[in-house]
Please model this.
Amino acid sequence: MKSWRLVALCCLYAIGSMAQAALFEDEEARRAILDLRQRVETQRQNQAQASEQILQKVLEQSQKQNELLRKQIEADSAQLKLDSTQLKQDSRQAMLQLQTQIEALKQEIANLRGEREQLLREINLLQRAQKETTADIEERFQKLYERLSKQDASSSSKDKEDAVKSSKVTVQVDGFEFLAEPEEKRDFESAFVLFRKGDFLASANAFTNFVRTYTASGYKPSAIYWLGSARFARRDFNEAIAQLRSLVTDYPNHARTPEAMLTIGNAQIETKQPKEARKTFNDLIKLYPTTEAAAAAKDRLGQLK
Model:
């Protein structure tokens, strides 16, 4: 019985020793685990702190880059506004310069127009003065020629007159027969040839010289008619009217007078004088009703109405 108890005590001691040994081992293991946990937690915290620092640096760099980008954008925007403002100023300045140039050109054009009108007035005055001077010279020449003619006529003898008459030739123009000197006949025919060729300027000059040279010529009415017709052909209507009116006034019975009146009426139409043209045509029809010129005047009157 005692031995059993001894055995039991020995067993209990052994169990107790084993329990203590196991307990000691569990404590070491627990400590090891806690230590491992502590190291893992420390490492995790260190890694988290390192990651946070890295993120903080990245964030700071991003903020710096964003700030630089913002400043660059603001600078570019300010430069763009400055450039836009400068462009507007330059455009405004260019427009002002262009407007100034346009106004200057307008003023220059106005000045040129004024000078042109002044020149035209001066030219008209010169032409009028020239015509008046020419008419005065012609009148003086005509008086001088008549005076010399009278002196020659009074001093010449009957034999001389007979000799002159014997040198003249008989001609017939526009239904009139008269005596003419050979030079007189030649000059008239030369002027008329120029008219028929269509050289109206040369013809007008030739007939003008003829009328001045042969003031008492039987050709004179016809020469005046062809002179007026040449002026009309050159569209010098006022001169044509003046020449042909002298024919109508001085030679109302001449064969060319009705045609001269018809040409006067046409010239008055060309110079915008319908009232005067109508009167001329009516006078023509009244004075020379059976002529071809009167028939043409009736047609022209119908066109005027």
